[in-house]
Amino acid sequence: MLEPRRSGSVSPAIRVRSRKDLQAARRRRPHACWGHLVAAALWPLHGTNLGTLLRTCDAVGACLAVPPFRWVDEAIARGNTLRRPSCIHRIGDPADWLKRERANGTRIIGVELADEAIRLADLPPANRRTIMVLGHETTGIPPEALNQLDLAVEIPMVGTGHSLNVAVAGSLVLYKLAGLL
Questions:
Q1: Is-contact 90 66, C-beta < 8 A?
Q2: Which residues are the signal sequence here (predicted)?
Q3: Cα first-last separation, the chain
Q4: CATH for 32-177?
Q5: What pTM was estimated for this model as a whole?
Q6: Most distant CA pair in the chain: distance in Å?
């Protein structure tokens, strides 16, 4: 139903969904641990990005993989605004873990500025177990881990910055891989 605005233009009536409506539309049970989508922030520089990324993982039903540093655990605890436990896994040697995962048939996608990268808009949703790898905010994905990637994806930018921060870039790619964009 279209209702007139005060300025004389016509716009659709907008109904904001209630908390009850939102809960009814979402998944009925928690996702399985090490499900088909994993966000791997294996070389974090800024702890504040980890809490934001964890919130996105929850939103799309993904797990978060991080290195086992004490400051990472503390950063996640500070930034975790969720009311229930989240799917977080500590990874020892990132390159070795990625190599094992790839050997087991997991698709490894890196968010990286590379000549071979595809644009985010061209990234299809994940149809099998997929790990999205995020690099260090300054230096990117290390060469030993780049060798494990099946695909690199880049997020086009119009402005003057070189890249987005890890939390924003990871969130965009997770939503695309989850088929929610």
A1: yes
A2: none
A3: 26
A4: 3.40.1280.10
A5: 0.81
A6: 63
Both structure tokens of 163: 């890249």
Phi, psi of 2 (to 5 degrees): -100, 135
pLDDT tens series, the chain, 181 aa: 555 555 556 667 888 888 787 767 765 555 556 578 999 999 988 787 888 898 899 889 899 999 888 888 787 777 666 666 678 888 999 999 999 999 999 999 999 989 999 999 999 999 999 999 999 888 999 999 999 999 999 999 998 888 888 999 999 999 999 999 8
**Helices 166-177 & 48-60, crossing angle to 10 degrees?**
10
d(Cα 130, Cα 74) in Å, to the nearest integer?
A: 27
The token pair that represents 152 in the structure block: 């690199």
Q: Give dist(CA 40, CA 170) in Å, integer.
A: 9
- Which ranges in the chain belong to alpha helices (H)? 19-25, 48-60, 70-79, 94-103, 143-146, 166-177
> Can you name the residues that pair with 154 across neighbouring β-strands?
119
Residue with tokens 């605005």: 5
For residues 134 and 140, give the distance between their C-alpha atoms in angstroms, rounded to a whole number.
8
Label residue 8 left, alpha or beta by phi (over 0 means left) and psi (-120 to 50 means alpha): left
Tokens describing residue 55: 């919130």
Domain regions of the chain by residue span? 32-177
Q: Token pair of 102, please?
A: 């790839």
